[in-house]
Fold this protein.
Amino acid sequence: MLPGIAGTLGIAVSALVLTLGSVGTAAAQQKGIDTEKKVVTVGAFTPVTGPVPFYSVLTHAADAYFKHLNETGGIKGWKVNYITYDDGYDPARSVAVSRKLVEDDGAFALAAPVGTATNVAAIPYAKEKKVPMIGPIGGASAFFVEPNVFPLLPDYGWSAASNVDYAVKDLGLKKIALLWENDELGKSAKRGFDLYMKELGIEPAESVPFDVKTTSFSPHIRRVANSGAEAVILFGSNANLAAALKAADLQGLKVKWFAPFFTADPSTVKLAGDLLDGTYFSSWLLPVSSEEPGVKAYREAVTKYYPGDPVGVFGLNGWSNAALFAKGFEALLDSGKPLTGESLIAALDNLNNASVGGAQGVSFKPGDHRGTRKEGIIQAKGGKFELVRDFKPYPVAVFDAPAQ
């Protein structure tokens, strides 16, 4: 071979190697990560249409969180590009949206996607693609054990047990009745209630199921009244709680009332009025009226970006689940590891006793993604909600019981 030709070929081969190397480097770049502009892309599915369009308030609050974050310095200088699509609260569409976010938009993670059944449906795809699901807004036991899923919301059984714990140990009550929605929400609460009552050696005064569409609680309240109950724990919607309080008022039943966190909301005040006063709520979230920085920032940001949305527990829920992504990404940056989904999962697996939005004491570890490990007790007073017992761990007998 002629020397000139050999030299030319050598240069060409070197150029080809360099080109292929550049292609390889580009291919290795993690989707959703723009290191030059310092932008990370995440996304979520949300029900703008369908049976529960009100849940879009959750996504508005999450979006307000990222907008506020970007305007105040981002995550150590990184900004978040938050993309959301309507899934109509249809699990099949949720999977399609997840695929679009990951494959078309290059989402690094799913952040604050909305719904229990919808998130459960998206898990297999996210696992296959090794996409972290951060702050799924729903309640399913599958969330607590999947390696790529990091939830904030607790099992309702833990919350019911927290209510029992306060009623017995702080208020000195022994005759406790349970009104429970006859679906997975209420059944989860019942499991925790029964387990902890047994642990305390106390027989339930009464246990009465109801349909989520129930509007008249007269027969349910009669059963509670006949049981001699001193306290009633209700696990259902804010409309259910308001209807039960009205039935109790008509029958002259005087008891202490307890309910789950999502009913500690201005929307419940509108439905129940003064009858809500005195009601206790077990809650993994601080009261919306709290002056803690994370909660105060929520009130200010959602009023700025979504002035038509109510300022309440629904919004604080969405805000806090978005904040979990920021907390995890910050931990990833601090770790110095490559900006990959696997590294984000590893960073979150080491999160310990963190404050996240309106949540306290959030921790994860490999194989145990029960992020919210504490609840406080909130009480309704004059249309507002105040923390009356600080956050404490869930009763061990229920928290450590095998998932069902």
Remarks:
- The first helix runs from residue 3 to 28.
- The CA atoms of residues 29 and 140 lie 33 Å apart.
- The first strand starts at residue 33 and ends at 34.
